[in-house]
UniProtKB/TrEMBL annotation:
Residues 408-430 are annotated as: Disordered. One of its GO terms (molecular function) is ligase activity. It comes from Kitasatospora arboriphila. It comes from the Bacteria. This is Coenzyme F420-0:L-glutamate ligase. Residues 241-410 form the Nitroreductase domain. Keywords: GTP-binding, Ligase, Magnesium, Manganese, Metal-binding, Multifunctional enzyme, Nucleotide-binding, Oxidoreductase, Potassium. HAMAP family: F420_ligase_FbiB. It holds the Pfam family F420_ligase. The keyword Magnesium applies. Residues 413-424 have a biased composition (Basic and acidic residues). Residues 11-201 form the Coenzyme F420:L-glutamate ligase-like domain. The keyword Chaperone does not apply.
Length: 430
């Protein structure tokens, strides 16, 4: 198989409102099965996505849905189309001085519209890719990738096929659209003023319909092993954590919980001890038995110790539904093994507090690690108020002190935005 990559030359400077398809039809020569690789900048210009340079930072903010990494003024972000790139694609290159360009608002939609108009004008069966320049994790240098597509599949899934040696392919999915975009850039270049190239010889890829666009190329957050940069992960994982009280029915991966527990037990602890134990309630019958027994103990306390009536008790205990409706529960326990004994109450209390801080740090590690796995969590203190009941139902040793319970599951809805909290009001500097 062979192919050609041909430049489309002679295009004028693109102005807002320009009929880009008409200009391409005039300056290019196309055949059935051609794939057009169109630099997104000229589409942005034609669509009037031009701003004054002074508005660049505000534009980046407006286009950003998630900051992935930050170093000085440089930002790697996810934009509204799910693309992870520098500065949300807001670019000052190849645009008149004093201006910046936004990416097309809907790159797939722009590719479809351009394809339809070009096919109408030329009578040819074509595909269109909109391309932009990206950096890549772990690799120096830039390359073009597809950010909009119409008329061809953007992925080639080899899974289930065999290679030349008869080996079954289990993981290989080729990013065809990105390969084409990078190849086209060898012809277009960054400074040559050639924003469009044509790939000829791959007509079998061109489809009658527009297809799914580039969405299949964008890795879902749940599958992204490198969703945050290192420093951002360490800092933002803590602030991204939210208390989630409504979960989907999707089962929780026990391996993910065990990875989170492995992170939890790296917490600091007194005297080089390991004072943490985590009870994983994976059997629904065990969870139900525990929650029923805890509810009975709670009702008994409210009735006998607080003197509440049944209506008031029902309203108060309804708050415990978050544990009952969660698909998975973890009960962290404090074990005072390795603790020092003191004859006086003051030092004995301080010793207990040291170990309590350790289990608190472990629970925080657990919550943050589960957030990194894509799960929502809620720490609820209720097991601390009926420890004997919990130990009896779960058949735990007498020196294991339950320290609340953690509900785990996929959040039923996105957490609400939380404004950044300044440290100043919590500081005393001496």
């Amino acid at each position: 198989m062979s192919l050609e990559i041909l430049p489309v030359t002679g295009l004028p400077e693109i102005a807002p409102g320009a009929d880009l398809a008409e200009l391409l039809a005039k300056h290019g020569s196309f055949e059935d099965g051609d794939i057009l690789l169109v630099t997104s900048k000229i589409v942005s210009k034609a669509e009037g996505r031009v701003l004054h340079a002074a508005d660049r930072e505000a534009a980046i903010d407006a286009e950003t849905v998630r900051v992935v990494a930050r170093r000085g003024p440089a930002r790697i972000v996810e934009n509204r189309n799910g693309l992870v790139m520098a500065a949300a694609g807001v670019d000052a290159s190849n645009t008149p001085p004093g201006t910046v360009l936004l990416l097309p608002e809907d790159p797939d939609g722009s590719a479809r519209a351009l394809r339809e108009r070009l096919q109408e004008l030329t009578g040819r069966r074509l595909a269109v890719l909109l391309t932009d320049t990206f950096g890549r994790p772990w690799r120096t240098g830039l390359t073009d990738v597809a950010i909009g597509a119409a008329g061809l599949p953007v992925l080639d899934d080899h899974r289930g096929r065999t290679d030349g040696h008869g080996n079954l392919l289990q993981l290989t999915v080729t990013a065809t659209a990105d390969e084409l975009a990078a190849a086209g850039d060898l012809v277009k270049g960054k400074t040559s003023g050639t924003p469009v190239a044509v790939v000829r010889g791959l007509g079998h890829l061109v489809t009658d319909g527009h297809g799914e666009g580039v969405r299949p190329l964008i890795r879902p957050a749940a599958d992204d092993m490198f969703r945050l940069g290192t420093s951002e992960a360490l800092r933002r994982a803590v602030t991204l954590r939210r208390t989630v009280r409504s979960f989907t029915d999707e089962p929780v991966d026990p391996a993910a919980v065990r990875r989170a527990v492995a992170a939890a037990v790296t917490a600091p602890a007194p005297h080089h001890t390991t004072p943490w134990r985590f009870v994983l309630l994976e059997d629904p019958r065990t969870r139900t038995a525990l929650l029923d027994a805890m509810l009975a103990a709670w009702r008994r306390d409210l009735r006998e110790l607080d003197g509440w009536d049944e209506e008031r008790i029902a309203r108060r205990t309804a708050r415990g539904d978050v544990l009952r409706k969660a698909p998975y529960l973890v009960v962290p326990c404090l074990v005072m093994d390795g603790s020092h004994s003191y004859p006086d109450g003051r030092r004995a209390a301080a010793e207990r507090e040291m170990f309590t801080v350790a289990i608190g740090a472990a629970v925080q590690n657990l919550l943050v690690a589960l957030t990194g796995e894509g799960y929502g969590t809620a720490w609820v203190s209720s097991t601390m108020f009926c420890r004997d009941t919990v130990r009896e139902v779960l058949d735990l040793p007498g020196d294991w002190d339950p320290m609340g319970a953690v509900a785990v599951g996929r959040p039923a809805e996105p957490p609400k935005e939380r404004p950044e909290r300044s440290a100043e009001r919590f500081l005393t500097v001496r």
